[in-house]
Amino acid sequence: MDITFEKVGYSYSAGTPFESRALYDVNLNIPDGSYTALIGHTGSGKSTVTQHLNALLKPTEGSVTIGDRIITNKSNNKNLKGLRKKVGIVFQFPESQLFEETIAKDIAFGPMNFGVSEADAMAIVRRVLPLVGLDESFMERSPFDLSGGQMRRVAIAGVLAMEPEVLVLDEPTAGLDPAGRREIMNMFNQLHIDNGLTIVLVTHQMNDVATYADHVVILEKGTVVRMGPPAEIFQDADWLQKKQLGLPSALAFLDTLSKKTGIDFGSERPLRTEQLAAVLIAKIKENQGNKNVAKEVGGIDVG
Ligand SMILES: Nc1ncnc2c1ncn2[C@@H]1O[C@H](COP(=O)(O)OP(=O)(O)OP(=O)(O)O)[C@@H](O)[C@H]1O
C-alpha cells in the first residue's frame, strides 16, 4: 500500500487564535514494501507527518493518499477504522499505553475492539508474541511486572495484533540500552523481511537509517527538503553537515580518514561497517607496498 502526500499543509488549532502551522507544501511518498526513514530536527514536523499516515490528523490543505483512500480536510470521519487497522503506529514510549491486567488481554484489546472473538483474539496473541521475542508463558502475567524493554515489546505486539500492512515507528528505541536497541531494531527488520511489512521509522540515528532504510525523507521546518535512497542522501556530506544532520559512523570515519591522510577513496560512500571494511581492504590491496597507505591505516595485513 503506497502512501503519498500532495501539497500537504497542516496547522494545529486551525481557525483559532492559537493556530500554529506545523507543515507546509509537503510532497512525499512512502512506497509499498519500503523501509522508509523520516528524519529531521526536533520540531521539523515528523510526528505531525506520522499522524497523517493513518488519518489521526487530516491535512489542512492538500491530500494524503493511503492505498485507495484519499484524505483531505473534507473527508468525513466515517470508515477510518479500516485505515487505522492497516497502518499501525507505535508512538514514543508505547508502554505508557498498557492498561489491562494481563498481557494477553492487552494484546487482544485491539482485535476484540474490531469484533474478533475472544478465542480468535487469543490465537492472534499466540501468533504475535514470538514476533516480539516473547513466549506464551507471558500471556497471563501482568504487563506491569515486566522490564521496560519487555513492556515495550508487549505494546508493539498490541499494534502487530491488528495485522497492519504499514508499521510506523516513532523513535521506537528511545530510552532503551544499546543491547535492547539492537534487539528491537533487528526485530522490526525481521518483520519487514519476513512479513513484507512497510516500515516508516522516525529517527535521529543515522546509523539506523544507513543499516535498515531503503528510502529517506528529510524534513526541515515543516517541509520536505530531500527525499531518496540512502546512498543518494548520504552522497552530499557537506549539505548534511551544514544542516547538522550528521552522517552514519562508517561514512564519517572514511571522510575523516580521507581528510587527515589525503587518501582518495573515490566515489565510494560506505554506509555500513562491512561496506567500510570492504572499501579499506580494497584500498590496502590496491596500494600494497605503498608506504603511505600502509602507514596511515595502521599497517593492517590483509593477506
Ligand atoms: N499539539 C500541538 N499543538 C500545537 N503545536 C504543535 C502540537 N504538536 C506539535 N506542534 C508544533 O508543530 C511543529 C512540528 O512538531 P512535531 O512534533 O511534528 O515535530 P517533530 O519533528 O516530531 O519533533 P520531535 O523530534 O521533537 O518529536 C512544532 O513547531 C511543534 O511545536
Automatic annotation (TrEMBL):
InterPro entries: AAA+_ATPase, ABC_transporter-like_ATP-bd, ABC_transporter-like_CS, ABC_transpr_CbiO/EcfA_su, ECF_ABC_transporter_ATP-bd, EcfA2, P-loop_NTPase. Pfam families: ABC_tran. Keywords: ATP-binding, Cell membrane, Membrane, Nucleotide-binding, Translocase, Transport. GO terms for molecular function: ATP binding; ATP hydrolysis activity; ATPase-coupled transmembrane transporter activity. One of its GO terms (cellular component) is ATP-binding cassette (ABC) transporter complex. Belongs to the ABC transporter superfamily. Energy-coupling factor EcfA family. Forms a stable energy-coupling factor (ECF) transporter complex composed of 2 membrane-embedded substrate-binding proteins (S component), 2 ATP-binding proteins (A component) and 2 transmembrane proteins (T component). This is Energy-coupling factor transporter ATP-binding protein EcfA2.
